[in-house]
Amino acid sequence: MKVLTKKTDYAIRALLMLGSKRGVYLSAKAIATDQDIPYQFLRGLLQEMIRHELIVSKEGAQGGFMMKKEPDEIPIAQLIEIFQGKVQVSECMFRKQICANRSRCVLRHEIMRIEQVVNHEFDKITIGKLIRDLDAANGMTQGCGEKVVHNSLESTAV
Amino acid sequence: MKVLTKKTDYAIRALLMLGSKRGVYLSAKAIATDQDIPYQFLRGLLQEMIRHELIVSKEGAQGGFMMKKEPDEIPIAQLIEIFQGKVQVSECMFRKQICANRSRCVLRHEIMRIEQVVNHEFDKITIGKLIRDLDAANGMTQGCGEKVVHNSLESTAV
DNA sequence: ATAACTGATACTATATTGATATCAATTAAA
DNA sequence: TTTAATTGATATCAATATAGTATCAGTTAT
Question: Residue B54 gets which letter from DSSP?
Answer without folding.
Answer: S
